[in-house]
Amino acid sequence: MLSDCLAAETGDDVHSIQLARVMKCFMAEGELRLCTSSDSGWMFQKARFMGDHSSGWLLRMSSDPTKDWLIALPITKAQLCGSVTKWVLHASSFLTPQ
């Protein structure tokens, strides 16, 4: 039923089945809270990783209660760790005085 609902919303039968399976029986999970600062204040976003023995998903969602959106991206745990590592190393180069 979950995969049918996802497929109806996205039009993607194959990935909807994979995402529904992971959402129902995940073996690994984690959450990231992303913060950015601007002249108008802080902006927050959330991301969540869920995975099972065959696939993983990165879910990004709105933190603003007036906005309702979610993006699901198939990704392995290794790809997620590599991306976070690159982001941290890239961000730290801006903070290191030359």
Largest sheet: 4 strands, antiparallel
Strand tally, please?
4
- Hey, roughly how much beta strand do the residues contain? 25-35%
Give the topology string: H per helix, E per strand. Answer: HHEEEEH
Q: What report would you give on this structure?
A:
This protein has 98 residues and is an alpha+beta fold. Helices cover 41% and strands 35% of the residues. The chain contains 3 helices and 4 strands. Strand 2 (41-51) and strand 3 (56-62) form a beta hairpin. The longest helix has 19 residues, at 77-95. The termini are far apart. The mean pLDDT is 85.
How would you summarize this macromolecular structure in one to three sentences?
Helix content is 41%, strand content 35%.
Features:
98 residues, alpha+beta, 4-stranded antiparallel β-sheet, 3 helices, globular
Topology:
Elements: H1 2-10, H2 13-24, E1 28-38, E2 41-51, E3 56-62, E4 70-74, H3 77-95
Antiparallel strand pairs: 1-2, 2-3, 3-4
Helix pairs in contact: 1-2
